Amino acid sequence: MTRIWNKDRQTNAPLKRKVFVGLSGGVDSAVSAALLKQRGFDVTGVFIKVWQPDFLPCSWRDERRDAMKVAIALNIPFLFFDFEQEYKRGVVDKMITEYKIGRTPNPDVLCNKEVKFGAFWKKAKEMGADFVATGHYARIEKGQLKEGKDKEKDQSYFLWTLTPSDLHHTLFPVGHLEKGEVRKLARKYNLPVSEKKDSQGICFIGDVSMDEFLSHFISTKPGDVLDTRGAIIGSHKGAPLYTIGERHGFEITEKQPDDGAFYILSKNMEANTLTVSNKEPEIISLSPTKITVKNINWITEPSGPSLWAKVRYRGEKMPAILSLVGSRLAVEFREPVRGLSLGQSIVFYDGDVCLGGGVMNKIIK
């Protein structure tokens, strides 16, 4: 294992490397702190408070209490960082702006960039930390970001905005473990959150559906659902609340008993309409094969134009080819991509190495 000691200039005694661990109140971050302490780091637990809307139950105090219990169990210092303004400005406001114009941003990606590896690292560094650590299921090896060992929990898709510089001061202690192993370690260390369920919902905000959240910030009105010929076959609650590829939340009134699920193919924000289809050949023929991408970030430069890409967190990696269209990076897929939603992240891979990513911007064909 790499030597983690420096020497104190005055006493020449071993000096532990200092790491601030983001303790969310969950099991993954708790085990991360325990593993780092076991490895000999000088560990400080930090609970990060972010903005929460008034219409949701106040849950952060309960999460902070759990995080504090973990720090007590591990006998490590505990700090409280308030990043309410940073989160509201860097995540929520940007997310609402994108939804208003019909795009689908990824709040977890924004949260990682602006808060967990932005504001958190900045403050930790000011306070003398050498590293920050989180409970993400991802690995950092030889200066590269890699998928977590547990492919069901892998979170590299949300980490494409990290830079090579970020990787130098970031630790993912549970990235080499399966989720079941993390639970076992939590019990072994007698951590008070060992049986706590994983959190769901929007990053930090909690268990609330996106359409419910957005309804408080975006003015919407009911609109028509159209088939691909333009005929009205149903209704919806407001175009900004829906994502391409979605099949729930709208009503189909002109439906036959044997009709399958209808999927959203496109949105017209000006007309406030959704176009849907339940016919596989039709869905495929109207799905894009080439797009442009903005806000590109390369963690590791690709070795050539051919690579693999994911257009959603739970999606499969697909073969893709990079090219330039004017000054924009373009990505062409071998097959039409169902449910591709502009504003979402596209993340590039070479095997298990996350090369980087960008934001899907325009459909070319």
CATH class of the largest domain: Alpha Beta
| SSE arrangement, N to C | EEEHEHEHHEEEHEHHEEEEEHEEEEEE
Number of domains: 3
Write down how many β-strands occur, each being a DSSP E stretch of 2 or more residues.
20
What is the level-2 CATH architecture name of the largest domain?
Answer: 3-Layer(aba) Sandwich
| Overall average pLDDT | 89
Biggest β-sheet description: 6 strands, antiparallel, barrel
Relevant terms:
365 residues; alpha+beta; Rossmann fold; SH3 type barrels; Elongation Factor Tu (Ef-tu), domain 3; 3 domains; six-stranded antiparallel β-barrel; five-stranded parallel beta sheet; 20 strands; disordered N terminus; ATP binding
Itemize the secondary structure elements and their pairings.
Layout: E1 5-7, E2 14-16, E3 18-22, H1 27-38, E4 42-49, H2 60-74, E5 78-82, H3 84-100, H4 107-126, E6 131-133, E7 138-141, E8 144-147, H5 164-168, E9 170-171, H6 179-188, H7 210-214, E10 223-226, E11 232-236, E12 251-252, E13 263-268, E14 273-277, H8 280-285, E15 290-298, E16 306-310, E17 318-325, E18 328-333, E19 345-350, E20 353-363
Parallel strand pairs: 3-4, 3-6, 4-5, 6-9, 10-14
Antiparallel strand pairs: 1-2, 7-8, 8-20, 10-11, 11-12, 13-14, 15-18, 15-20, 16-17, 16-19, 17-18, 19-20
Helix pairs in contact: 1-2, 1-6, 3-4
General description of the model:
Its main location: cytoplasm. The chain is of the alpha+beta class and about 375 residues long. The protein folds into three domains: about 10-210, Rossmann fold (3-Layer(aba) Sandwich), CATH 3.40.50.620; about 220-285, Roll (SH3 type barrels); about 285-365, Elongation Factor Tu (Ef-tu), domain 3 (Beta Barrel), CATH 2.40.30. The chain contains eight helices and 20 strands. It has a six-stranded antiparallel barrel. Strands 5-4-3-6-9 form a five-stranded parallel sheet, sandwiched between helices. Helix 1 packs parallel to helix 2 (about 60-75), helix 1 (about 25-40) crosses helix 6 (about 180-190) and helix 3 runs antiparallel to helix 4 (about 105-125). The longest helix has 20 residues, at about 105-125. The model is unreliable at about 1-15 (pLDDT under 50).
